[in-house]
Design brief:
The protein is built from 6 helices and no strands. It is mostly helical. α1 (2-9) runs antiparallel to α2 (14-33).
């Protein structure tokens, strides 16, 4: 929530605000329904890119360490994390989720058979099961957009272009 409020206050792009709103709704449904914790934990692994993003943002905002070996190493680590966790990891999540639903391995993949605890409506569970992969697809699209900018910035820094990195906006 804090990050969302900071994004609104700092006039970050609409994609940042939208991303946080749909993620808050989805995680709220996970907690409300008491279902899909594994999928939520896997989806939450994208946050592993945040420490490197924060370090990069601090350098961009303060100018400290600009052009240093540390900044370049941090940028390369950020690029690798983005590639593994977001660009490749999110589609793997989607494939595993679809296979789980199709195979019947998900404990209650059919809402009609779902053993929903009292006070946890089947409609909320059905919405969660549709919303979760849709949110992952949205996050993947946004991540691919950011990854292009990170790649351009990293290549510029590695090739000795200096200057500022493009699109190093934090998640």
């Amino acid at each position: 929530m804090y990050e969302l409020l900071m994004y609104v206050q700092s006039d970050k792009g609409a994609e940042f605000v939208l991303h946080h709103i749909v993620v808050i709704i989805t995680y709220g449904l996970v907690l409300h329904c008491g279902e899909m914790h594994f999928w939520a934990a896997w989806a939450g692994m994208v946050e592993a890119t945040n420490p490197n993003l924060c370090i990069l943002q601090l350098g961009l905002l303060t100018g400290i360490g600009r052009g240093s070996l540390f900044e370049m190493a941090n940028g390369v680590c950020l690029w690798l994390l983005f590639l593994m966790i977001r660009v490749i990891g999110i589609p793997l999540w989607l494939v595993a989720y679809v296979k789980d639903v199709q195979s019947g391995m998900m404990a209650s993949a059919d809402v009609d058979r779902a053993e929903v605890a009292p006070g946890r409506p089947a409609l909320a569970l059905a919405a969660l099961r549709v919303l979760a992969p849709a949110v992952q697809l949205l996050l993947w699209a946004i991540s691919c957009f950011w990854f292009q900018k990170l790649t351009a910035g990293m290549l510029k820094a590695v090739r000795g272009g200096g200057g500022t990195r493009q699109g190093a906006k934090g998640d």
